[in-house]
Amino acid sequence: MKPDTTVVIVGAGQGGFQVAASLRERGHAGPVVLVGDEPGLPYQRPPLSKNFLLHAETQTELRPRSFYERRDIELRHARVGSIDRFGRRVRLADGHTLAYDHLVLATGARNRTPPIEGVTLDGVVQVRTRDDAERLRARLSAASHLAIIGAGFIGMEVAAVGARTGITTTVIEALHRPMARSVSVATSTHIADLHRAQGTTLRMGRTVVRLDGDDTGAVTGVRLHDGTLVPADLVVVGVGVAPAVELATDAGIDVGDGIRVDAHLATSDPHVSAIGDCAEFPNTHTGTRTRLESIQNAVDQARCLAARLTGTPAPYTAVPWFWTEQFSTKLQIAGIGQGHDDSTVLGDPATGSFSTLLFKDELLTAVESVNAPADHTAARRILAFDRPLRREETAVDGFSLAQWAGGRQRRGQDRTVAPQDAVDARLGHTADVH
Amino acid sequence: MTKIDYIQSDGTRITVDAAPGDTVMSAAIAADVDGIVGECGGNMMCATCHVYVDEAPAARLPAMTDDEDQMLACTEAPRTALSRLGCQLPTDEPMVVTVPGIPT
């Protein structure tokens, strides 16, 4: 791509923001336009289900306005209506068009709304945007009974806030344990116990039949399939998200479980790339095509793409990592543990600090660390090594991830394919961070 | 308002008036200081707000928690005795910090 070309980025979340910032950091001289459909400056979402609900003054803006001005990044507040791939321009809903040489789709995801009767009652809310979170914060201060549908990360984070503010809190989940799609039984059990110890009721393995309301249209409770009623004057629905793929689909770009991209994050149109929550990419850590919903993935894919657009292409190989915080307990996950066939625990869960190592076919695939950041940072290094950690190597007395990682690095055995990857290996993310 | 001085890897010194409640990380981001990323928003998850505290009323700096200590193991620039995570440092007192340059 020539240095004076125009890059239009659709979606001003963490990924879109990072593409713009990294392009400038790498010296891209052409116009950079960041199009977002929410008012205000780009902001971060992780606090929205945590501190932001407790403290109105929680800072969420990623950078001040001067950041964009100094770097000549144009912020455009608009909804994109369609992509004209052949004319290489996007049409905005306000009637304007933006010409591009390269288009980046960082459209993120939208919350799923379950097809449940009563889901539109007053007092039934979701959390995605900062506006959503502000409304939820106002409602939390007035509510007495909070019911959360869905025990994923967001649901459990909101439950922790509810319990902390002294509201009677119940979490309802169709699967049999919290965060079942994301974490192992050991971690899930530990987190569930934390919530119960704070007085939260977990109704696992229960499905919702309908939401009940009063004659003013306000929600009064959640009816479960076992016939029981969970009284609630505030219901938070957190049942997962769907990637925002409509623009790509309408433009005839390949879409699977997300906008399909190759190892370089290019879509089926070489002038269009996709990153972050909306992108389905070949995951070198699982050997499958996946879509990840995380800050790490959005930021690292943004950096990988900015590197390619400025002339240093490298396939996307960053180690995935995730975090959640509930009741001051920090859960950090490195790698992808889904489909593991064995696990082992380092440390004693009773102390509140331990890590669960997950293996598939005898090789380490993920580490879930509860209040154990040293294990987490070591795991991120280990999972970037060429030579995987075998289960049998962890079965020695006093095994430590940090020591093993340090030992391999000293012996120079963390050989990776390219210098860029070696930096990834050490840092858990790409090299152009500053 | 408390004055926090950030010295960047090229020697530039930026003085920021930190607002009450700011951390060394959040004040830097609000003032657009290069080199402090704060990717995780101040949750001690990412270590991208690593700074070297050059001048500070040392006795008044909060003690380093185990979590901060462990996260400092994965900073990009080398850790030294002056290393702290900016998100863990309140701005009640004037301070001079160096923002590490990142090896490429």
From TrEMBL, chain A:
Q: Where is the FAD/NAD(P)-binding domain?
A: 6-302
The record's SUPFAM superfamilies line, in alphabetical order, gives: FAD/NAD(P)-binding domain, FAD/NAD-linked reductases, dimerisation (C-terminal) domain
Q: Which PANTHER family match?
A: APOPTOSIS-INDUCING FACTOR 1 (PTHR43557), RIESKE DOMAIN-CONTAINING PROTEIN-RELATED (PTHR43557:SF2)
Among InterPro entries, the record links this protein to:
FAD-oxidoreductase/Apoptosis, FAD/NAD-bd_sf, FAD/NAD-binding_dom, FAD/NAD-linked_Rdtase_dimer_sf, Reductase_C
The UniProt keyword set, sorted, is:
FAD, Flavoprotein, Oxidoreductase
Give the span(s) annotated as Disordered. 407-434
Name one matching Pfam family: Pyr_redox_2
Bias kind Basic and acidic residues: ranges: 423-434
Q: Can you name the source organism? A: Embleya hyalina
UniProt name for this protein: Pyridine nucleotide-disulfide oxidoreductase
TrEMBL record, chain B:
Task: Read off the PROSITE patterns from this record.
Answer: 2FE2S_FER_2
Keyword line: 2Fe-2S, Iron, Iron-sulfur, Metal-binding
Indicate whether Hydrolase appears among the record's keywords. no
Q: Where is the 2Fe-2S ferredoxin-type domain?
A: 2-95
The terms under GO molecular function for this entry are: 2 iron, 2 sulfur cluster binding; electron transfer activity; metal ion binding
Q: Supply the CDD domains for this chain.
A: fer2
* Pfam families in UniProt: Fer2 (PF00111)
InterPro entries in UniProt: 2Fe-2S_ferredoxin-like_sf (IPR036010), 2Fe-2S_ferredoxin-type (IPR001041), Adrenodoxin-like (IPR001055), Beta-grasp_dom_sf (IPR012675)
Gene Ontology CC annotations of this record: cytosol
The entry's family comment says:
Belongs to the adrenodoxin/putidaredoxin family.
Name the cofactor(s) required for activity, per the record.
[2Fe-2S] cluster
Annotated protein name in UniProt: Ferredoxin
One Gene Ontology biological process: P450-containing electron transport chain
